[in-house]
Structures are given as structure tokens and as C-alpha cells.
Write a structure and sequence with these properties.
Layout lengths: L9 E5 L4 H13 L2 E6 L7 E4 L2 E6 L2 H8 L3 E4 L3 H13 L4 E4 L6 H11 L5 E3 L5 E4 L10 E4 L8 E8 L2 H13 L4 E6 L10 H10 L5 E7 L4 H12 L4 E6 L23 H10 L3 E2 L6 H12 L5
Parallel strand pairs: 1-2, 1-5, 2-4, 5-6, 6-7, 10-11, 10-12, 12-13, 13-14
Antiparallel strand pairs: 3-4, 8-9, 8-11
Helix pairs in contact: 3-4, 6-7, 7-8
């Protein structure tokens, strides 16, 4: 079992005819993902082909969803057009929209956030690596890969990973896999200041998933999303949880990396977030290379065997 996606999930790729979208469409098809449609306005009626798979292209998300039964769309649309691409998913009442695009203007995302309030469509991202639910084949093929994560480093198993950072997601996954510990689902939620799904949203889903036995939560400086999640974990989650906060050496007031990674309030600093993690019973990884070991420490303390 996994959260949000399964190997049977049918997905649309918005921007499949662009260089970036096409490259990752090919990688997802090779992974075994059910890529059933592409969307590029003005190019409807064409076909995207790779490895013997023919993917029809439509002019709109609504047309693609109606014709194929797709429930999820991944967005590789340039920043000026990405907000409207996300809203197309909401108008088509998809279950999930995953926005990979980096550099969407904040004012556009504020408009998207307001328009999607009450929508049946969940947004992951923007500026995120997407999601992976590993399969059982070689290099975890046969699962569902949505976005840009390297599929081959994953392994099917029982640890959930949620992160604002794509690179640290890959690092945590790699550490787990080389220790022969698999993942149920890995979710990159992105680092922009205005995004869709939060750490807490994903943590709640992992907590409800009986096939997720442990969780790695990766955050960074800026905002209070990690603190919100940690306090909820303390009150509601008995599963082992390890946490890491990036940006501990960032000078106060300076923007680091992601657009959202800037210290503003008292609970925005790495030191403050780490302190809250410790108070909430989350095993803190001292460095990025300690993330899997931190989860193993937490699992041992709770008497949980991870696989």
C-alpha cells in the first residue's frame, strides 16, 4: 500500500511535448508508470511515443481525463503559464495535481491557492520533485514515478519520506535503500513559500497508512510547517519518526536555496525547529548523512523493525 498514488494510477503529463516534460515522460514510462495522456494546447491529436507506448496528446486536461480516466496530472509547464495549468486540473476535478515547475510567481500561487480552496483536487508543489511509490521490479520498476526523482535508487518497502528539498529526498531514499530498507511513498512537497500539500498533510496520510512503519521528515529554515507537523506527531503518531532541518549555518535574514527558505520568526530557525523536534520525540539527524541511521535509532527505541 502507498499514499496518494499506486502503480495503477493513470497520469497525464502537461507539457509532454517540451524538452523537460518529454525527458521525464520517457523515464516514467520506462519505470512502469501508467502515462496515459499528454496535454499541450494546440497539439491535440498528436501522439507521444516511447518504448512501444503510444500516449495520445490532448488540448486540455478535461479532454484528457474524460478520454483516458486519468486522475492525476504532473505539470512541466513554463512558469508564466503554470498557474493556469494547475487550475485546469482543479476544473477537471482530478484527484491530484503535481507541479514540478520552479519559478512560478508568488502572486500567481496566491491566486491558485484561493481558487483551489474547497476543490476536490490536491496540489503537491510547486517547485518539487514529485512522488514515487516504488515497484517490485529491478531498480524498483513497476511502481509509480511522477516528476523528476531518480526511480532506480528506490526500493519497495515501509518507510515514508516527506521533504521540502528534492536533493535531500534522494539522499534519504538512497541511505534507506543501501541499508535494505524500502519506501512506501516518497513525497517532495517543494520549497516555495506558497504551496499546496504541507508536511502535516503528508504525515497524517503516512500515519493512517498501515503499510508505512516509519517516517523521515525533512525540512529547512523558514516558515513553521515543520513545527506544526512535529507538534501533531507528538500528540497523534506512535510510529518512529526521524527529522532533519537543512540550513543550520544560514546567516539570519539571508535567503538560502528555496524561495521559502528564509528566517523570519522565532520558530523559523534551524535551532528552534530542532529543539521542537526533540521536545516532540522526533529523532534528529545531526547531518544529512545521518537521516537513515536516525530513523533506525527511533525504530529501535520503539521496538519497530523496518524493512
Amino acid at each position: 500500500m502507498s499514499i496518494l498514488i499506486t502503480p495503477e494510477t493513470k497520469i497525464i503529463i502537461q507539457g509532454i511535448t517540451g524538452e523537460f516534460g518529454a525527458r521525464h515522460a520517457r523515464l516514467s514510462i520506462e519505470y512502469g508508470t501508467q502515462v496515459v495522456a499528454g496535454v499541450t494546447p494546440g497539439k491535440g491529436g498528436n501522439t507521444f511515443e516511447h518504448a512501444g507506448v503510444e500516449v495520445p496528446i490532448f488540448n486540455s486536461v478535461a479532454e484528457a481525463a474524460e478520454a483516458t480516466g486519468a486522475t492525476v496530472s504532473v505539470i512541466f509547464v513554463p512558469p508564466p503559464f503554470a498557474a493556469d495549468a494547475i487550475l485546469e486540473c482543479a476544473d477537471a476535478e482530478l484527484e491530484l495535481a503535481v507541479a514540478i515547475t520552479e519559478g512560478i510567481p508568488v502572486r500567481d500561487m496566491v491566486r491558485v491557492k484561493r481558487a483551489m480552496a474547497g476543490s476536490k483536487t490536491r496540489l503537491v508543489g510547486p517547485n518539487c520533485p514529485g512522488l514515487v511509490s516504488p515497484g517490485e521490479g529491478e531498480d524498483s520498476k513497476g511502481g509509480c514515478r511522477i516528476g523528476i526523482s531518480p526511480g532506480y535508487i528506490h526500493k519497495k518497502g515501509h518507510v515514508g519520506v516527506v521533504s521540502r528539498s528534492g536533493t535531500l529526498t534522494y539522499e534519504a531514499v538512497y541511505q534507506l535503500t543501501v541499508k535494505d530498507i524500502g519506501q512506501s511513498t516518497c513525497v517532495g512537497i517543494g520549497g516555495d513559500p506558497v504551496n499546496g500539500t504541507s508536511h502535516l498533510d503528508v504525515i497524517k496520510l503516512f500515519n493512517e497508512d498501515p503499510d508505512t512503519h516509519g517516517i523521515i521528515l525533512i525540512g529547512e529554515i523558514g516558515g513553521n510547517a515543520e513545527v506544526e507537523a512535529a507538534r501533531w506527531i507528538k500528540e497523534n503518531c506512535d510510529k518512529p519518526v526521524a527529522g532533519f532541518i537543512a540550513g543550520a549555518t544560514a546567516p539570519p535574514g539571508r535567503r538560502m536555496g528555496h524561495a521559502g527558505a528564509i528566517v523570519g520568526g522565532a520558530e523559523d530557525t534551524a535551532a528552534a525547529k530542532i529543539k521542537v523536534f526533540e521536545e516532540c520525540g522526533i529523532e534528529v539527524a545531526a547531518t544529512p548523512s545521518d537521516m537513515a541511521d536516525a530513523l533506525l535509532r527511533s525504530a529501535k527505541a520503539k521496538g519497530v523493525t523496518l524493512s
